[in-house]
Design brief:
about 100 residues, alpha/beta, 3 helices
Length: about 100
């Protein structure tokens, strides 16, 4: 599933692969989107469709957020690669979910 309408190519794609991060995932995504700069995107690559994703993330109407999910149980490196497939930025930064 993809949620995204983007006007122009972003300069940076922040890829956030996740599996089961819950509350920490919400904190990470909200911190990334806590700016008015529109030159970047956040690609949230959800691994294993059974994970609980806070509704507050899925209900965000921020055009910089792109959500991709799979029901497969991927390794971390495979989930990073999957995020790369959805990234549109000229530069890419891989981020781990903040666990603090």
């Amino acid at each position: 599933m993809m949620y995204h309408i983007y006007m122009s190519k972003p300069v940076i794609s922040f890829i956030v692969p996740s599996r089961g991060a819950g509350v920490f995932l919400e904190h990470t995504i909200k911190n990334l989107l806590d700016t008015s700069d529109s030159r970047y995107e956040v690609v949230l690559s959800l691994n294993n469709g059974n994970q609980r994703v806070p509704k507050s993330i899925l209900n965000l109407s921020d055009s910089r957020l792109r959500v991709s999910s799979t029901n497969e149980n991927l390794s971390m490196s495979s989930n990073w690669y999957r995020g790369l497939l959805y990234a549109k930025g000229e530069w890419v930064a891989m981020l781990e979910v903040t666990m603090e």
